[in-house]
Amino acid sequence: MITTTPTICILGCGTMxxxxxxxxxxxVNEAIKNNYSIPNTASFKPRKxxxxxxxxxxxxxxxxxxxxxxxxxxxxxxxxxxxxxVVLLCTKPQIAKTILTEDGMAEALENKLIISILxxxxxxxxxxxxxxxxxxxxxxxxxxxxxxEGMTVxxxxxxxxxxxxxFTMWVFSTLGRVRVLxxxxxxxxxxxxGSGPAFACVVLESLADGGVMMGLPREVALELAAQALQxxxxxxxxTGKHPAEIKDNVTxxxxxxxxxxxxxxDGKIRSTLARTVxxxxxxxxxxxxxQANK
Length: 294
Ligand SMILES: NC(=O)C1=CN([C@@H]2O[C@H](COP(=O)(O)OP(=O)(O)OC[C@H]3O[C@@H](n4cnc5c(N)ncnc54)[C@H](OP(=O)(O)O)[C@@H]3O)[C@@H](O)[C@H]2O)C=CC1
Ligand SMILES: O=C(O)[C@@H]1CCC=N1
Prior knowledge:
The protein is α/β, with parallel strands linked by helices. It is about 50% helix and about 15% strand. The chain folds into two domains: about 5-190, NAD(P)-binding Rossmann-like Domain (Rossmann fold, 3-Layer(aba) Sandwich), CATH 3.40.50; about 195-285, ProC C-terminal domain-like (ProC C-terminal domain-like fold). The chain has an eight-stranded mixed sheet with strand order 3-2-1-4-5-6-7-8, sandwiched between helices. Helix 8 crosses helix 13 (about 270-285) and helix 9 packs across helix 10. The structure holds NADPH dihydro-nicotinamide-adenine-dinucleotide phosphate (NDP) and (2S)-3,4-dihydro-2H-pyrrole-2-carboxylic acid. Keywords: Amino-acid biosynthesis, NADP, Oxidoreductase, Proline biosynthesis. This is Pyrroline-5-carboxylate reductase.
């Protein structure tokens, strides 16, 4: 059973480890300011955060970012895991097996919960690499977790206990939206919401380029493009309207929007974006199969 004041070890604290820590720390600090009176934040009050990295250079970066809020260890994964109640596995998929099977790790992991955010590494692979008493849950978050605008999909084995599921839901609900799905969907989730911020930024940058082409200053163009995309996305999420309806409302007969839309369609933008997710999904499904030291 997970204590309400767990010690959390971020095993691998790069882009995503830092994004998750930033989001949780923002949430916990906000909760402290409000005497834990905000719903959701009151459930758990993590006592300590430990970040494990391999090199001194990245250790220093994590220290610079979080100061004394996080204990950072380099090249001492077993020590970090020993001290923790819950391990958030955030290394590259290719080195996970080596890390989880190193000397002393099995003992350190006994009876603990690992939440893996690794793309393409299945629950059954993870279970093979850890002791039978170790519980494993997969989560696929994305980088907007850093500003608590994340999207995370969680997959739990059928025998997951309520405490472990509740804790995992808590972690990621402090970082944005959360959904629970069957593991068979996780590669598609990775290709869509995991990779999605990168795809969205290419669209955003391209729209801004158009504005710059037509004379807008770069920073104005970026603001307009970002807010237009955010506004449209929020309308879909808030109203539940189909994107086609929102698009049609913008489109005045014989107006400028339909002229732009037809130009987009000429460029096969829909199939290009859909195939982008298809390709990312296909590659995600292979990431757990390569056990190289990349
Ligand atoms: N980036 C994204 O948007 C998303 C990524 N993911 C998944 O998250 C995981 C991490 O990705 P990302 O954050 O981008 O990767 P990064 O390369 O940014 O981070 C990897 C981290 O692992 C550390 N690390 C490397 N080797 C070891 C080791 N032997 N022991 C302990 N720590 C080690 C690195 O430290 P050091 O620098 O010292 O080597 C670094 O802190 C991947 O599995 C990916 O599939 C999931 C969703 C979104
Ligand atoms: O590119 C990757 O492999 C990771 C997984 C999802 C987002 N980034």
